[in-house]
């Protein structure tokens, strides 16, 4: 009886037995790219219960410290990549905001004075609020710098950047949920999402650094508002520069 021809993985070149390559995990039946394959991969990544996205969100809620330590220790395939997670949460925020017609200026008092300087500051503030999610990368950076400053011995700056992408991704998810409350329940709770994130960040860091938890909580209590302040300064400065160039 003749032996069936072996299948070679098109990703890593190893011989494959079964549906998936034991070396890299790619399907053995990969052919030309089709629309079905593309959308099937998206559906698998988003809606399968065991998919990395849902595993990542669950672990970030239930045990964020364990999940972050696992990822930094090398368990990369188990979890959604930090940048991809951040980008996906941002896209969800933008889509939901568009879907429910969310107004970033709701409950914002806009006072335009006569001086050109005041008008410029108001325009910069409006630009910043309208494009606030375009500046979230700055928030990632300021949060990572804060973590490195207060916990400099534990991990490298690059590792803290990865952690910050996950943290800001969760922040974006919380703000997205808060949009519904603002839009349909009470417009006076615009800062509820920020408060919840502050509490979550402290919880995540205490879970991430399980030693000397009291001091970790105190440091986290300081890091988050400092990072938020840096994020605001960078975002508003860029907005002011753009508005100034437009009006010049």
UniProtKB/TrEMBL annotation:
Superkingdom to which the source organism belongs: Bacteria
Keyword annotations of the record: Membrane, Transmembrane, Transmembrane helix
InterPro entries on file: DUF3667 (IPR022134)
Transmembrane segments: 79-100, 128-151, 163-183, 189-209, 221-245
Protein's name according to its UniProt entry: DUF3667 domain-containing protein
Protein species of origin: Aureitalea marina
């Amino acid at each position: 009886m003749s032996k069936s021809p072996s299948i070679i993985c098109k990703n890593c070149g190893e011989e494959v037995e079964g549906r998936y390559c034991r070396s890299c995990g790619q399907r053995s039946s990969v052919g030309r790219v089709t629309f079905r394959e593309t959308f099937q991969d998206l559906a698998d990544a988003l809606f399968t219960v065991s998919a990395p996205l849902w595993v990542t969100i669950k672990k970030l809620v239930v045990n964020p410290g364990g999940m972050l330590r696992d990822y930094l220790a090398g368990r990369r395939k188990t979890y959604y990549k930090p940048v991809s997670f951040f980008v996906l949460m941002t896209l969800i925020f933008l889509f939901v905001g568009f879907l429910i017609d969310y107004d970033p200026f709701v409950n914002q008092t806009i006072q335009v004075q006569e001086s050109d300087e005041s008008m410029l500051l108001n325009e910069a503030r409006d630009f910043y609020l309208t494009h606030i999610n375009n500046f979230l990368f700055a928030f990632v950076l300021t949060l990572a710098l804060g973590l490195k400053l207060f916990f400099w011995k534990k991990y490298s700056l690059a590792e803290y950047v990865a952690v910050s992408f996950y943290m800001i991704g969760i922040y974006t998810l919380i703000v997205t949920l808060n949009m519904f409350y603002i839009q349909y329940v009470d417009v006076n709770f615009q800062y509820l999402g920020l408060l919840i994130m502050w509490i979550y960040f402290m919880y995540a860091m205490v879970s991430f650094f399980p030693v000397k938890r009291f001091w970790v909580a105190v440091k986290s209590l300081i890091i988050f508002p400092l990072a938020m302040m840096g994020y605001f300064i960078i975002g508003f400065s860029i907005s002011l520069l753009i508005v100034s160039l437009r009006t010049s």
